[in-house]
Amino acid sequence: MRCIAIAWLAALVFLAQPVRAGDGLIFNVTLDYDQERDHVAVQTAFNDLARHLSKSVGQPVKLILTQNAERVGERIRTGTYSVMLAPAQLVGLAMRHGYIPVAKTEQEARVVLVAGKGSGVTSLETARGKRIALPHSESLVSYMVKGELNAMGLSPASYFGQVMHMNQYGAVMYAMDIGQAEVVAVKADLAEDWMRRNPGAKVVKALPPVPSAGVVVNAKLDAAIKDRIRVAFTQLDKDLEARLKRVRLGTFKSADSADFEFVSSRGFFSPEVLPGATIVKAEQVKQLMAQKVPLFDVRPAAHYREAHIPGAINVPYGMNSPKEVDYDDAVDTFDLSKLPQDKNAPMIFQCNGAECWYSYKAARYMVKRGFKHVYWFRTGLPAWKAAGYPVQSGS
Known about the structure:
- The protein is an alpha/beta fold.
- The chain folds into three domains: about 1-105 and about 210-265, Periplasmic binding protein-like II (D-Maltodextrin-Binding Protein, domain 2, 3-Layer(aba) Sandwich); about 110-205, 3-Layer(aba) Sandwich (D-Maltodextrin-Binding Protein, domain 2); about 275-385, Rhodanese-like domain (Oxidized Rhodanese, domain 1), CATH 3.40.250.
- It is about 35% helix and about 20% strand.
- It contains 15 helices and 20 strands.
- It has helices at about 1-15, 40-55, 70-75, 90-95, 140-150, 155-160, 170-175, 190-195, 225-235, 240-245, 260-265, 280-290, 300-305, 360-370, 380-385, and strands at about 25-30, 60-65, 85, 100-105, 110, 110-115, 130-135, 160-165, 185, 200-205, 210, 215-220, 250-255, 275-280, 295, 315, 315-320, 335, 345-350, 375.
- The chain has a six-stranded mixed beta sheet with strand order 2-1-3-12-4-13. Strands 8-7-9-6-10 form a five-stranded mixed beta sheet, with helices on both faces. A five-stranded parallel beta sheet has the order 14-20-19-15-16, sandwiched between helices.
- Strand 19 (about 345-350), helix 14 (about 360-370) and strand 20 (about 375) form a beta-alpha-beta unit.
- Helix 2 crosses helix 9 (about 225-235).
- The model is unreliable at about 1-20 (pLDDT under 50).
């Protein structure tokens, strides 16, 4: 048993080491759920892509081809891969865990919601309470739908009457065919093909386009290796490009974090609305504080001590609930004794920017309990700094 434990420890230490030139690269290709994976021609194309990458960087490349986005997400968090070619939502996740985008597909993905003829659905608003069919829960389509609703302060489970996830991508439109769903969410190309065969169906909501897929590299890689990887993807030969196009990829072009900023924040950032509260910007916060309206910094005390807005009062929001719209604040903690007791008293809540949920939940906590003048400084401390206003450290 002791030998086994030592072997496991050695393996973990090995995986934790940064990749060095000569060690070889672990190249993950994760396909979205509308892409063919098991066909021999597909596997051959990606094997050839791995060989092309190996030749470009001058070291061995181990290809891992998968369609299990959830498991890949776990590996991203541990920095297992050297290089990844993955759908846009996984690129966004990787950006938060030490990976840097170097390329993206020229082909974009536009997710649309389609309603069948006779469904009575003419817009996203009239789709409320209807049955919706979506692809696999870890697909780009489902991610984008959830993210769009999240930005609106909503969630699929509470907005629609029933949410059905289909593991087989083609089954989504079939759910409409057999009357199992009034609305479906798919990529635009599949929707267009289906609507040509089903007159009267219509797109009721088109989400912003995002890159279909992107290439990210582990930030620990040598800079020269990163550049070679970028060049390798942007200078594919025409034959390999054509074969990758049949897998819904095709041509790549150079990219950076800005190309995936939207998709990386969709569903991860706090909602963009909060009914019952007023969302304010840095200048408005400054004006309100000058009028003696208290600003509550609801981050943990350690974050507050590191840097905070002068005059802000630290009342940490104890967040035990998940970072999603449908959460139960009964599992959270918030010391109301340190806040105004008058429900007509104005108050501002702030944390560390749009990706920080502490202030969203604190402001919503107070709105839910009947407080009438709640201000939410959604963009928080980063926006305050960006406006050129001072910060201070300490208690």
